[in-house]
Automatic annotation (TrEMBL):
<feature type="domain" description="Glutaredoxin">
    <location>
        <begin position="92"/>
        <end position="155"/>
    </location>
</feature>
<dbReference type="GO" id="GO:0005737">
    <property type="term" value="C:cytoplasm"/>
</dbReference>
<dbReference type="InterPro" id="IPR011899">
    <property type="entry name" value="Glutaredoxin_euk/vir"/>
</dbReference>
<dbReference type="InterPro" id="IPR036249">
    <property type="entry name" value="Thioredoxin-like_sf"/>
</dbReference>
<dbReference type="InterPro" id="IPR014025">
    <property type="entry name" value="Glutaredoxin_subgr"/>
</dbReference>
<comment type="similarity">
    <text>Belongs to the glutaredoxin family. CPYC subfamily.</text>
</comment>
<protein>
    <submittedName>
        <fullName>Monothiol glutaredoxin-S12, chloroplastic</fullName>
    </submittedName>
</protein>
<keyword id="KW-0676">Redox-active center</keyword>
<dbReference type="GO" id="GO:0034599">
    <property type="term" value="P:cellular response to oxidative stress"/>
</dbReference>
<dbReference type="InterPro" id="IPR002109">
    <property type="entry name" value="Glutaredoxin"/>
</dbReference>
<dbReference type="Pfam" id="PF00462">
    <property type="entry name" value="Glutaredoxin"/>
</dbReference>
<dbReference type="GO" id="GO:0015038">
    <property type="term" value="F:glutathione disulfide oxidoreductase activity"/>
</dbReference>
Amino acid sequence: MAATCNNICKAATSIAISISTPSLSTSSSHLLLPSLSLLPKSSIFSRNISTSSSRLTHVVKNPGRVNFRVMSSLSDSGLEDTVKKTISDYPVVVYSKSWCSYSSQVKQLFKKLGVQPHVVELDQLGAQGSQLQDVLGDLTEQYTVPNVFIGAKHIGGCSDTVELYQKGELENLLTEAGAKKES
């Protein structure tokens, strides 16, 4: 995707970048800058930057380059609605990647507990999978998988889920959500 920088301006600790694109779709792009003197001095920064037709997320400063991801606002709201509907329709939802060992560990734990979560394998959804992962990150501030929801409440990832199990709290949450019958 060819993106051109229309405006780069520095305000106290933030940066505004306006870009124009012929058609927006989720893809990583790079904006090469002749000078990074306009950017904040921190080595890494992240901002959500809004424009009228798109949103830039995950801005990370590297020597000589600013990486950014462009997503259409319209598709974000539709995917956000999809995520919200999915987590409200199912007592347990795991957003996963089929090759991820942490995702497998969470799915095995639920199997051991006799719970069948609704699993969404993001890596098997093509471009929509990465868009969904970005939307999940925006909603939960967790950009990794697995991303676990119980009773429409965000639980966290693998470590969080296992920790709840080890504390004896996971089964209560599953029962309250209607995912597991009381023993």
